[in-house]
Amino acid sequence: MTGLQAFLSEQYTAEFQAFRTVLDAVPTEAFATATLGHSPAWHALHIAEWVRLTVLQDRTPNYHHLGWEDKPWVGPMGTEAAPVSETADKAAILAHLDDVGAKAVAYLAAASDTEMQGMTFSPSAPTGERPRLAALGMHVRHIAYHRGQVALGRKEQA
Predict the structure, then answer these.
(1) Contact 68, 46 (CB under 8 A)
(2) Locate the DinB-like domain: which residues (predicted)?
(3) How far apart are CA 143 and CA 136, in angstroms?
(4) Model pLDDT, residue 158
(5) What share of the chain is helix, strand, coil (3-state, %, to 5)?
(6) H-helix or E-strand spanning residue 119
(7) Which DSSP category does 80 fall into?
(8) Which of 56, 69, 72, 85 is the most exposed place for a label (fewest CB within 10 A)?
């Protein structure tokens, strides 16, 4: 593992742990309740999907929580059932997030320098792709953003 791969796997590990801390603090009975637009369950599945798509580059067409469902590019990505739905219990959703997170961290730790280079799918970029390292950096911050959304939603409920 090079310094870059170690850095990325450490950053993703830290952010997944912080996100889990916030999600774990949500009472089970409130986990599927939307605040500020989405439920904590949705936020967990949203992050699992984006990490699966951007870090693991998984193109299995079973995405249902990307948050861009009104965009034409999403349609073909959601033709199969989601691995876990928003109506699943909290433990199942968190187990799915943990699984995706562990796979992402393992991938980043073992990635070659070549795998860290080049372009990758990024629908928000003007060309639909962006440099791989920029995408990885954006998505670790994306986890932090949704961690904040869940924390803010908890304050809203209080």
Answers:
(1) no
(2) 11-150
(3) 11
(4) 66
(5) 60, 5, 35
(6) strand 119-121
(7) S
(8) 72
Look up residue 133 and give its DSSP letter.
H
The full set of domain ranges for the chain reads 3-157
Residue among 16, 7, 3 nearest 103 (CA) = 16
**117-124: long-range contacts at Cβ-Cβ below 8 A with a sequence spacing of 24 or more?**
120/54, 120/57, 121/53, 121/54, 121/57, 122/54, 123/68, 123/71, 123/73
pTM of the predicted model as reported, rounded to 2 decimal places: 0.95
* Phi/psi of residue 84, nearest 5 degrees: -145, 135
Range 96-121 burial, b when 16+ CB lie within 10 A, else e: bbeebbeebbebbbebeeeebeeebe
**What SS3 class is residue 35?**
strand
> Cβ-count burial of 53 within 10 angstroms (0-12 exposed, 13-18 middle, 19+ buried)?
buried
13-27: per-residue pLDDT in tens? 999 999 999 999 999
Contact 156, 36 (CB under 8 A): yes
